[in-house]
Sequence to fold (164 residues):
Amino acid sequence: YLVGNHDFWLGDFLSEQIGIKIVKKPISVEHQGKRIYLIHGDGLAKKDIGYRILKKILRNKVNIWLYRLIPPDLGIPIAKKVASFSRDKTQARDKEFLKDYWEFAEGKINEGYDAVIIGHTHQPCFEELDKGIYINLGDWFEHFTYGKLTQGKFNLLEYKHVEA
Fold:
């Protein structure tokens, strides 16, 4: 599980109780003969100074410790309000910054990666570049998109619910 900007306070629950491997930093993997660079992508937009500052505040260990002192009945509504405010402000701006994500992917592909997979913007994107593929996975709550690698071929697919 590659941690994103809403997941950095997960703690050890997923890893200890469910056995899911938690990855907090970008990771390079090789799968089906393809070299893949996986990164959440928050902070990649060079001109998004406000988000970079907010990221430092929210991920500060003292702030995390202080937040954990707040009872859940108060803490959860506060977190939802901050996330909602952040989401409303950044969704419009993320479209401005999509070029930064594309350029980042192109740079990694030029380093020898076959694919770069990002998720932060929640905007699904599948782009075949000269030497590799840039994929932004989109999201699971609006677009219902996910990436799949089958027999060395990358795809960006949309989950379709089928009634039983």
